Amino acid sequence: QLRESGPGLVKPSQTLSLTCTDSGGSISTQYYFWNWIRQPPGKGLEWVGRISYSGGTSYNPSLKSRASISRDNAKNTVYLHMNSLKPEDTAVYYCAADRRLVFRVDEYDYWGQGTQVTVSS
Predict the structure, then answer these.
(1) Cβ pair 3, 78 in contact under 8 A
(2) Banded pLDDT at 25 (limits 50, 70, 90)
């Protein structure tokens, strides 16, 4: 039900903008924690950050200075913006949602299919 969308290819130093929406309409931004997770090629899942049902945000300390998560409740959509992109930001980016505050990235209840982001000139 969750679906990510984004540009696919981004140049180094540019800003990435991704969107996640629930096509089914049952996973509300106002009742769930929505998370962004990424998986670089050949590596494990890395939590990027989350936005809570109240609008509060938390970020991976290693990405906090470059990442920003926001939402539009009317559109039931969550956004990820990440600036100053580097080739090492190349990954499949996922959004995932859960009613609970979950700290293990592999335990979220709802996942999107992921969207590939490649950072290259």
Answers:
(1) no
(2) confident
**What number is the average pLDDT over the span 82-110?**
95
Q: Give me 93's structure tokens.
A: 């980016």
Q: Which two structure tokens, joined as six digits, stand for 111?
A: 């996942």
Return the H-helix or E-strand segment holding 67.
strand 67-72
C-alpha pair distances (Å), 99 with each of 33, 51, 67, 113:
6, 12, 23, 19
- Nearest residue to 114 (alpha-carbon basis) of 68, 48, 25: 48
Residue of 93, 119, 113, 120 lying closest to 35 (CA atoms):
93
> Is 29:120 a contact under the CB 8 Å cutoff?
no
End-to-end CA distance of the chain: 33
